[in-house]
């Protein structure tokens, strides 16, 4: 038997979906206008800059982004043409490769990040109390843990 959402849950879920769509669209437009990056470009570059060495195995990057490898490969090809990333072979693994942040990629994300963070502050965190930020963190941690546990 289907467990339908009650009115409170439906309002929360639909509000979350609308917020997610509108926030992503706004952040994408602002990134595109300010730096020429898409939100997906930014996601890739952030994952690389978060590493001790700015590179990741293709499979690890695909998993971190929750993308199919073919989608990642096509997206990286477009980013490579713009000089944002490169690819290197993995020593000892002829089939594997690394995605590597280029100097141009680092320059672009370093220029884009301050305005992006300011937008996130303006549209999300400036609207929330400290307690609401803590609640949001607790909610995302719990849902992400459940997704992880579900495999």
UniProtKB/TrEMBL annotation:
Pfam short name (any one): MarR_2
Domain of life: Bacteria
Residue span, HTH marR-type domain: 1-145
Species of the source: Saccharopolyspora halophila
InterPro entries: HTH_MarR-typ, MarR/SlyA-like, WH-like_DNA-bd_sf, WH_DNA-bd_sf
Stated name of the protein: MarR family transcriptional regulator
Gene3D superfamilies for this protein: Winged helix-like DNA-binding domain superfamily/Winged helix DNA-binding domain (1.10.10.10)
PROSITE patterns registered for this protein in UniProt: HTH_MARR_2
């Amino acid at each position: 038997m289907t467990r339908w959402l009650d009115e409170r849950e439906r309002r929360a879920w639909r509000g979350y979906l609308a917020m997610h769509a509108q926030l992503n669209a706004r952040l994408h437009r602002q990134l595109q206008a300010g730096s020429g990056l898409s939100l997906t470009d930014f996601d890739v570059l952030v994952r690389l800059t978060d590493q001790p060495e700015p590179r990741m195995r293709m499979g690890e990057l695909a998993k971190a982004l929750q993308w199919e490898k073919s989608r990642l490969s096509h997206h990286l090809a477009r980013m490579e043409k713009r000089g944002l990333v490169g690819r290197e072979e993995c020593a000892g693994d002829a089939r594997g490769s690394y995605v590597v942040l280029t100097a141009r990629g680092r320059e672009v994300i370093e220029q884009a990040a301050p305005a992006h963070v300011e937008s996130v502050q303006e549209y999300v965190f400036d609207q929330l109390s400290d307690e609401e930020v803590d609640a949001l963190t607790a909610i995302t941690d719990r849902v992400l843990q459940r997704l992880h546990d579900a495999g």
